[in-house]
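Our preliminary data section would be incomplete without showing what the modeling component actually yields. Below, a chain of 231 amino acids is followed by its predicted structure, encoded as tokens that our downstream tools consume directly.
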Amino acid sequence: MMRWSAISWRPEGSAAVERMSTLDAGFYFVEHENVPMHIGSLAVFDGPAPSHADLLGLYAAKLSLVPRYRKLVRTLPLQVFRPFWSDDEHFDLGYHLRHAGVPPPGGPAELTEMASRVFSQRLDRARPLWEAWFLEGIEGGRWAILSKVHHCMVDGVGGSDLMAALFDLSPEAPPPVPTPWEPLPGPRSPTWWRAGRWTRCSGRPARSPTCPGSSGAGCLSRATCSASAGG
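Predicted structure:
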């Protein structure tokens, strides 16, 4: 048996993926049906509401500031390693930014009821772990943005939130321009973790039996290494 650690994993034929931190992995795995692990916020604004298309354009322009919001969580069989982040090759901003109306009369009771319903639903683990809801119909001509994001997205090494990136310091700030983005290819096989390459892999031997049927030479290298894992 080897004691070892790794920073990133590069499956053959795809881009390197980022390993989740221990703290973030804890937030991810502790979630179950009755214990959602997302955090939320509700920001209410005065003045005329933007169009849904304008808000989509704003989010598209700001996503480059928080790359993790376009990444999926991938897990390994039996959770032998911590999960990984990799680009969502089918990312759809329209899925993540929803548009809805608060039931009339749009007072605090109706807004609170709607927010509680949205917050009670778990995030879809087959997609990047966040949602934003553009809410209209609030009394007084106001509107709101309700944000949901998983703890593992904003804690630990993530550390930043899309809601914070949305706002400018000046009302005269020029409109942001979306940055072109192409997703990096992810793993293509259920056994990608067996046939890839660890980078910055370090290890040292421990007191344990060698691999069955070998003198130990067929096991992982016993020296500090940067090497391919066996298939």
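Helices lie at 22-30, 52-62, 93-96, 108-119, 151-154, 162-166. The chain has one domain: 11-197. Preliminary results of this kind motivate Aim 1 of the renewal.
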